[in-house]
Amino acid sequence: MTIRVLVVDDSATMRGLITAALNRDPEIEVIGTAADPIEAREAIKRLNPDVLTLDIEMPNMNGLEFLEKIMRLRPMPVVMVSTLTQAGAEVTLAALEMGAVDAVGKPSAHITAAEAFAELTLKVKAAAGSTVRARQPAAPAPAPHDNYRAAEGHVLAIGASTGGVEALLTILSAFPATCPATVVTQHMPATFTGSFAARLDRSSGATVREATEGAPLLPGHIYIAPGGETHLEVAGITPRCRLVRSETVSGHRPSVDVLFGSVARLKKPMTGVILTGMGRDGASGLLEMRQAGARTLGQDPGSCVVYGMPRVAFEIGAVERQLPLSRLSGAILDLCSAHPRHATSPA
To answer: ∠ CA(97), CA(230), CA(171), 5° rounding?
Structure first.
């Protein structure tokens, strides 16, 4: 079935470039374009598209305001098209937190349209198959984990892709300052990961930083894999972050499989978690972790934006239990606790 797309951007040139990139794929058809949210609103009513590509800076109403209305009144899959600047990254992260499925960067003086839109068709296809829900009022802050202490030396590894921004914010916002040393690979452009780490740091009781070469894994700290040129690994008797320059693995750099595989070799108490995302990155690495004695969790189908990575991991036996997003933070902390209350034996 052909995926029907509405392109929304105030630049006629950009609308043309996005349309051309999408129409090259026989499974996608651009059924209309709009120069601002007012035009887009009428086009949505008239054309009923499967997916919307949405600019952020537009006249009459900016993209974030329009996205908020979409997610509240008529939820549908949205892929943001943003400038890959620091300011653009922060606004795009806000859009992903609000319910946009994914984002791509715009061409610039240093980035051609072919380079900027290399993954656009894949992301539009993933968006078309995603689960998008009505925007709900913000949930109350999670209750603090009084007297929580992670087990000594415990390492937690988390992998995510499409839909992962919202999932990671939900989970890590509930983490206390005494959480286990945590390493995270989220598929994300290089200019986004620093802003994402800062956003998580503001919402979590833990200290969240973009991972750097040689940084020691400390309790109460969360390390986010930098996007772009390296994979995040952990290694050593006293584990430290390693940023390894090598080819893509499972189609990604950084790769969740690389992170999970390195954690599996640590010979430490460990927990692995695989969240919403397209494809299969992380499945084989999580299986390595489970075979090495790790406890493992996967996000369940009903709460995933895209049930791809967790599905593959579950099907190959890498996932011990699947849980909805709302229950994952508590389950993770319990598995990593010095005094677990509800953890069950591995299946």
So the answer is: 30
